[in-house]
């Protein structure tokens, strides 16, 4: 979190265009002299992105695509709109799910959560294990623990939980989780799991998900 400098920041409901009060998470809109006026030679795309208009009529805002909240004048960035998982009309933020999953076991390292579209939106979790070979671990119980924790805290049952080796979860060079890349790898059957549970409906969407035994 930090205080914005040189730009005006508003937090806006991206669906309604309504400005949100402090503490509410919404899309970050900014305007100011340092903000680009638009894409070169593409006025239509520029209008959509660079001339966001709040419901009360104020315009000229850049719609960043980032989610965040203003708290006591400080801007806290929480993620990207494209990463939000919508289940039964509720917005679930992957950062919250990922943090909750990590609390299930001290053996959990980096992990990610993302949505998979089908007849409904499905939640899938890919979670790395730390040093599994040093522990007598019941991987099926760890998987069940993830399902229970998410169900208890968010009233949502994940449709897929994959426990994977360290280094499987993709990140950018700046350390940000590449959730879209992980979703693509999952749907393309490119993830090798040490243990997994995948709902049959989601399994039909996946080309191939191949579990294998880890090192002894």
Automatic annotation (TrEMBL):
<dbReference type="InterPro" id="IPR000873">
    <property type="entry name" value="AMP-dep_synth/lig_dom"/>
</dbReference>
<comment type="similarity">
    <text>Belongs to the ATP-dependent AMP-binding enzyme family.</text>
</comment>
<dbReference type="GO" id="GO:0005886">
    <property type="term" value="C:plasma membrane"/>
</dbReference>
<protein>
    <submittedName>
        <fullName>Uncharacterized protein</fullName>
    </submittedName>
</protein>
<dbReference type="InterPro" id="IPR025110">
    <property type="entry name" value="AMP-bd_C"/>
</dbReference>
<dbReference type="InterPro" id="IPR042099">
    <property type="entry name" value="ANL_N_sf"/>
</dbReference>
<feature type="domain" description="AMP-binding enzyme C-terminal">
    <location>
        <begin position="83"/>
        <end position="196"/>
    </location>
</feature>
<feature type="domain" description="AMP-dependent synthetase/ligase">
    <location>
        <begin position="1"/>
        <end position="40"/>
    </location>
</feature>
<dbReference type="Pfam" id="PF23024">
    <property type="entry name" value="AMP-dom_DIP2-like"/>
</dbReference>
<dbReference type="Pfam" id="PF00501">
    <property type="entry name" value="AMP-binding"/>
</dbReference>
<dbReference type="GO" id="GO:0006633">
    <property type="term" value="P:fatty acid biosynthetic process"/>
</dbReference>
<dbReference type="InterPro" id="IPR045851">
    <property type="entry name" value="AMP-bd_C_sf"/>
</dbReference>
<dbReference type="GO" id="GO:0070566">
    <property type="term" value="F:adenylyltransferase activity"/>
</dbReference>
């Amino acid at each position: 979190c930090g205080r914005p400098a040189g730009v005006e920041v508003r937090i806006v409901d991206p669906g309604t265009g309504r400005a949100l009060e402090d503490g509410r998470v919404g899309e970050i809109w900014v305007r100011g002299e340092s903000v680009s006026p638009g894409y070169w030679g593409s006025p239509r795309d520029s209008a959509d992105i660079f001339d966001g208009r709040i419901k009360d009529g104020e315009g000229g805002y850049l719609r960043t695509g980032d989610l965040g909240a203003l708290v006591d004048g400080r801007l806290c960035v929480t993620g990207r709109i494209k990463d939000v998982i919508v289940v039964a009309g509720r917005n679930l933020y992957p950062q919250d799910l990922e943090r909750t999953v990590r609390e299930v076991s001290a053996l959990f390292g980096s992990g990610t959560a993302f949505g998979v579209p089908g007849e409904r939106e499905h939640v899938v979790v890919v979670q790395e294990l730390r040093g599994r070979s040093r522990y007598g671990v019941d991987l099926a119980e760890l998987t069940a623990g993830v399902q229970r924790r998410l169900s208890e805290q968010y009233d949502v049952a994940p449709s897929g939980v994959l426990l994977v080796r360290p280094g499987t979860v993709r990140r950018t060079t700046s350390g940000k989780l590449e959730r879209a890349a992980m979703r693509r790898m999952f749907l393309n059957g490119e993830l090798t799991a040490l243990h997994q549970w995948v709902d049959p409906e989601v399994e039909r969407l996946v080309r191939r998900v191949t579990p294998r035994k880890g090192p002894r």
